Amino acid sequence: MTTSPDATTKPRLSLRKQDARFAWLLLIPSLLVILGVTLWPILNTLYLSLFNAPSGINQVRTFVGLGNFIDIVKDRTFWETIGRTAYFTFVSVGLELVLGLAIAQLINSKPFGWKFIRFSLIIPWAMPTIVNGAMWRWIYSGDFGALNGLLMQLGLIKHYIPFLTNSVTAMNLVIVADIWHVVPFVALILQAAMAGLSVELDEAAEVDGASAWKRFWYIRLPLLRPAILIALIIRTVEAFRVFDLVYIITSGGPAYGTVTISYLTYMNSFTFGKLGTGSALSFLISIFTIIMAVIYIRFLYRPEETSA
Amino acid sequence: MSKSVKLVFTIVAIVMLLTTFGCKPATTNGTGSPQETVSPVTIHIITMDQAAMSTDEEEAIARAFEAENPGIKVQWEFVAYEAVHDKIVTGMATTPPAYDAIMVDVVWPDEFIKKGYLLDVTDRIDQATKDAILPAAWNGVTRNGKIYGMPWLLDTKYFYYNKDILQQAGFSAPPTTWEELITQAKVIQQKKLAEFPIAWSWKQAEAAICDFTILLVGNGGTFLDANGKPAFNNEKGVQVLTWMKQTLDEGISNPSSSVYGEGDVETNFISGKSAFMLDWLSGYSNGQDPTKSAIVDQFAFAPAPVFEAGKAAGIMGAGVDGSTAFGVTATSPNADAAWKFLTYLSSEAVQVKYSAKQLPIWKAEYTGDNLTKLLAATPSNPITLLAFLAQFPFASERPNVAYYAEASAALQQALQDVFAGNKTPQQALDDAAAIWIQLAGQ
């Protein structure tokens, strides 16, 4: 019986495969950290969502399968909260995109003091959200608020208005606070993308007689689509999970009119001690955000533009 | 990739692994048993940054304790009252827990005991100590004959009024009934002495339930009936909530009351914008602080009013129990050290020294020479002590049930729904009562 040399000797790995193996070996510590701080909590949350799990030491957990999810989707409060959160998300992200684009365009046209404007933009963005929330809460105060003071000085109101006592107004004012905080982030992303655009197309269109608006709408905006997509995805995910601003400015009031899905999750998990329900809500938040990200990618992502 | 580069990367990877997974908590010695460690025990304790003594005073107490006990360090964590409960729930999820000792508000012990958070300290308290502390102080930490903490604060909400405003309005005495308050408020408004004569802490928080308790009890109502079933939705409760809504609609109450917490109410009152408020005892010190207040020496205490109907039924006063204790966490590795600090924090000497914003829990301090010393301990004591003795006997407890947090949230929503005009008082309270029944059955 004869045997081929390949069957009797251990095959030598190519240099490339050896390096790949070594790279994986080096990645093990980082992967273990990621497993520990990301994957394990996610799996544990998924596991918890299948139980009636009251918070506390040595509390008995009862397996309820998908019971928590079913209870949540059957609850009117959940859908009201989703509606409220969707309103917050689409209004705030929409306005942030429009304002961010306008500011980016302004900076990109390099008017007098544009470097100062760009630097100033960082201030609201750099401010911690909690500080931002506390600041806006005082601005909106019905007795001492700067907004009331301003409107009074301008002669637009005769009495101070308790803005936060109406749930619709309160939600819109939380949106204003969010916009003030986040518009710089969107503007800086878009401005960086604008700075990288080729000017030749723009100049050619100008020579052909295209107006500034048409050049922006038909040339610049499509080229900015990848940057817009990034800003939209990041901001939508963040906005849909909004918690801290609501917690500080309105505490979910008045009449639960500003309770968002993250706030509802927080209340169930930590105030009411229903860890199973809270975990199920967390998963539902993830599902909603993934759906929104997929929709954005489906409609906005153009690989040929990205590669160009 | 050269062998030397691979070697360097391998070493870095091993170091990272060891650093990440080789860490373990430092060994501490909180049991009094000899251990090799030389570092002092650090106890972590969470409390509210609101009402009672100030955080500066609490830090000073901790430093004084550390000086007497070199082996123990005290690390306070101060958070807003609204955040304390949820921080505790989160902090107790780890092993060992984030806190060795926790604040226990009077409405939390049932829940915390059920969840296993609190160490049973019955055996650590001798009979002499039990007898020496006012019985009301033990209520917040005693269940089924077992003690789960050290009493610390006896507090209730007081009725404050602005003397100057009342005098200018032509009233020589504060109101004794809520109906009388409305009469006085209307005159105050007519004379433009205050746009909104009273502000309340009726935001969607526990503070609203404290105010509701005072009003409910003052109208002859109760939260639960003799069978433990919700009774706040009977005619007494509905009358109270209707009255609350009416004062908002008529502009007697500051319209921002539905979103104001206790801090907002206090700021409003001590800036001279309102004539009346309900607040804890610490409101007095803040009102007398010229760096914060525009009404130093212009305000006073009066017994909290009741409703005419309550008065006719023989109700002499109404209040809410806002007492607080501290408990050692059941899984703390530093239980002995934590308990030692808690007994120091609530000791007679410390409580007398820091009595400006909270009065002692010790019976002996209210008689004989001790009383004289207590009155002289701080400039405010001669006034706050009288107010305490007049108001605290009427302090009513909110329901002692393990599901209180969720039940309170349902009642808060009922109040908010009425303020927002979403529901009638009857409808809102009935809905809340239905939730209470459901929670009690779980």
Distance between the termini of chain A: 60 Å
Helix and strand composition category of chain A: mainly alpha
Low-pLDDT residue spans of chain A = 1-5
Helix and strand composition category of chain B:
alpha/beta
How many E strands of chain A? Answer: 2
Largest sheet of chain A, in brief, is:
2 strands, antiparallel
The domain tally of chain A reads 1
Shape of chain A: flat
Radius of gyration computed on alpha carbons of chain A: 26 Å
Largest beta sheet of chain B, briefly?
Answer: 5 strands, mixed
Quickly count the helices of chain B. Answer: 19
Helical residue percent of chain B?
Answer: 40-55%
CATH superfamily of chain A: MetI-like
Mean pLDDT of chain B: 91
Would you kindly provide a written description of the structure presented here, covering whatever features stand out?
The complex is a heterodimer of chains A (308) and B (442). Chain A has a two-stranded antiparallel sheet. Chain A is an all-alpha fold and 308 residues long. Helix content of chain A is 73%, strand content 1%. Chain B is built from 19 helices and twelve strands. Residues 23-37 of chain B have low confidence and may be disordered. Chain A binds chain B through residues 19, 22, 25-26, 28-30, 32-33, 36, 54-59, 141-144, 159, 162, 164-167, 170, 250-257, 266-267, 270-273, and chain B through 1, 6, 9-10, 12-13, 16-17, 20-21, 82, 85-86, 89-90, 92-93, 111, 114-117, 195, 199, 203-205, 254-256, 258-259, 264, 267-268, 271, 273, 330-331, 405-406, 409, 413, 416-417, 419-420, 422.
How would you briefly describe this protein structure?
The complex is a heterodimer of chains A (308) and B (442). Chain A contains 15 helices and 2 strands.
Feature tags:
heterodimer; A: mainly alpha; two-stranded antiparallel sheet; 15 helices; 73% helix; B: 442 residues; alpha/beta; D-Maltodextrin-Binding Protein, domain 2; 3-stranded antiparallel sheet; 19 helices
